[in-house]
Design goal:
There is one protein chain. By secondary structure, this protein is α/β, with parallel strands linked by helices. The chain folds into two domains: 2-205 and 365-444, Medium-chain alcohol dehydrogenases, catalytic domain (Quinone Oxidoreductase, Chain A, domain 1, Alpha-Beta Complex); 219-361, NAD(P)-binding Rossmann-like Domain (Rossmann fold, 3-Layer(aba) Sandwich), CATH 3.40.50. Helices cover 33% and strands 21% of the residues. It has 19 helices and 20 strands. It has helices at 2-10, 14-19, 49-52, 79-86, 93-100, 104-107, 196-200, 203-213, 235-246, 258-267, 275-278, 291-305, 321-327, 349-354, 367-378, 395-403, 427-433, 435-438, 440-444; strands at 25-32, 54-59, 67-77, 113-115, 120-127, 139-142, 145-146, 165-166, 179-183, 187-189, 226-229, 250-255, 271-274, 283-285, 288-289, 311-314, 333-336, 358-361, 386-391, 410-414. Strands 3, 5, 6, 9, 10, 19 and 20 form a seven-stranded mixed β-sheet that branches. A six-stranded parallel β-sheet has the order 13-12-11-16-17-18, with helices on both faces. Helix 12 (291-305) crosses helix 13 (321-327). The longest helix is centred in the C-terminal third of the chain and has 15 residues, at 291-305. The structure holds NADP nicotinamide-adenine-dinucleotide phosphate. NADP nicotinamide-adenine-dinucleotide phosphate is lined by residues 78-80, 204-205, 208, 230-231, 233-237, 254-256, 260, 275, 315-316, 319-320, 337-338, 340-341, 363-364, 402, 405.
Length: 446
């Protein structure tokens, strides 16, 4: 991969990149099938991604006609890599076995190791014979919606496809590596005013937040809507707040410390709730919720913005769902895509039906939504929320930061890029958008 790295850094022409031989092995971050029991008996937070994520050479898989090899310059950590690394709620090898049973090409994925990672920026180095729109030398970012385009169920909203998967989580050969194997319909043009690591950190969380708030498939936010955003400086929340502000809404951001509150203010979010300072205890004990605490949150929201949220941007799950349903406005929507604190959620259904509220589910984004969300990044209307950068060798440490909620925004990972700040080829747009806006999380993050 060294030859690819040099050629990309030197800005070599496409023909030169296309002529470099594909190596037999590449460096990748992966978990091992024979280690899935290594954390048996431990509580979730005691499971240590630094022990389960390995970085070493693995064989390069064969290229299918509809796929590309991408030399990965940078990647990013997502929560799904945390789930894979702690083998919760299930080891991801089951996903790979199922994919392996579907086709000859699927079989390549069913291996005793799982190369993780669902975000990347880089350069296409080979395109399969059926790829029409991309060629070696193209600078790209990768979205993680992995669908079978020969399946009719994938042709309305591809997130409804029967065998829809998330690349690098439910498929192998993910982005935390020097090389990755992706379907051509996962590729999008790199935002050229951003560095490799700034470009790499967006696609998964940005597209997810876009679908949840902006797309007709989500909560259909409109101008003036009050939107309660949990984890408002986290991966999803950092983009959600920007979408609410861009769309003329009123974000109420919830965070858990003063430094995150400052970051939110820098993003332009005026209504901020520090949940640690407030000390909400939505669960009186493991089995019982305390509606008076839901009410206290509702009062705090009203004190800030004068009304209840039209939309609640929900992902913590068990800890917050009861409160989210309660505080949503009459007729409002709770849009949920996750359950970080537990997926067996509980809420008081009377508050849902009597006040005609809805709970709407969302999951990543279809290609068009991911493309539109990436377009907003390319136009400089949504900013990356990169707060920290690790080398690929320290993927386990980077995942631990996310696992223990020690981070803000997104954590980037340098793969072939030897250092930060490389890969910016539109400095004019960067100047126009403003260095400070692009680097808000990197400058102000803890
Ligand atoms: P993240 O960067 O860790 O941000 C989540 C934030 O939520 C945290 O920073 C934390 O912020 C807040 N939070 C965590 N536990 C909480 C709790 N018990 N109560 C209230 N707030 C809590 O993670 P992310 O990338 O935003 O992802 C969040 C979840 O969404 C994960 O479970 C992930 O797997 C899932 N996800 C799903 C999709 C999808 O397509 N379905 C896509 C992306 C992510 P504070 O401590 O500051 O409050």
């Amino acid at each position: 991969m060294e030859r690819f790295r040099e050629a990309i850094l030197e800005g070599a022409p496409a023909e030169e990149i296309a002529a470099i031989p594909i190596p037999e092995t590449y460096r990748a971050a992966f978990v091992k099938k024979d280690e899935t029991e290594m954390f048996a008996g431990l509580a979730s937070k005691e499971k240590d991604p630094r022990k389960s994520i390995h970085v070493d050479q693995v064989p390069v898989p064969e290229l299918a006609p509809n796929e590309c090899y991408v030399a990965v310059m940078a990647s990013a950590i997502n929560f799904n890599t945390v789930w894979t690394s702690i083998f919760e709620p299930l080891p991801t090898f089951g996903f790979l076995e199922r994919l392996g049973s579907e086709s000859i090409w699927g079989k390549r994925h069913d291996l005793p190791y799982h190369v993780v990672g669902s975000d990347a920026s880089g350069v296409v180095v080979r395109a399969g014979s059926a790829v029409r729109n991309w060629k070696p030398g193209d600078r790209v970012v990768i979205h993680c919606n992995y669908v079978d385009d020969q399946d009719p169920s994938a042709h309305d909203d591809s997130m409804l496809a029967n065998n829809q998967r998330i690349w690098g989580f439910e498929s192998n050969f993910g982005g935390l590596a020097d090389l990755t194997l992706v379907k051509a319909n996962q590729l999008m043009a790199k935002p050229e005013h951003l560095s490799w690591e700034e470009a790499a950190c967006n696609a998964l969380c940005n597209s997810t937040s876009y679908r949840m708030l902006v797309s007709p498939n989500g909560a259909r936010m409109k101008q003036g809507d009050v939107v309660l955003v949990w984890g408002a400086t986290g991966g999803l929340g950092g983009y959600a707040v920007q979408y609410v502000l861009n769309g003329g809404g009123i974000p109420v951001g919830v965070v858990s410390n003063a430094s995150k509150a400052k970051l939110l203010e820098a993003l332009g979010c005026e209504a901020v709730i520090d949940r640690a300072e407030k000390g909400y205890r939505f669960w009186a004990d493991e089995h019982t919720q305390d509606p008076s605490e839901w009410r206290r949150l509702g009062q705090d929201i009203r004190a800030l913005v004068g009304e209840d949220p039209d939309i609640v941007f929900e992902h913590p799950g068990r800890q917050t769902m009861g409160a989210s349903v309660f505080v949503a406005k009459r007729g409002g929507t709770v849009i949920t895509c996750a359950a970080t604190s537990g997926y067996m959620v509980e809420y008081d259904n009377r508050h849902l039906w009597m006040k005609l509220k809805s709970i709407r589910s969302s999951h990543f984004a279809n290609y068009k939504e991911a493309w539109d969300a990436n377009r907003l990044i390319r136009l400089g209307r949504i900013q990356p929320i990169l707060s920290a950068v690790y080398p690929l060798e320290q993927t386990g440490e980077a995942a631990t930061q996310l696992h223990l909620n020690l981070h803000e925004g997104k954590i980037g990972v340098l793969c072939l890029a030897p250092e930060e700040h490389l890969g910016i080829s539109d400095p004019e747009l960067r100047d126009k958008v403003g260095e400070d806006r692009i680097t808000t999380f990197r400058r102000l993050g803890a």
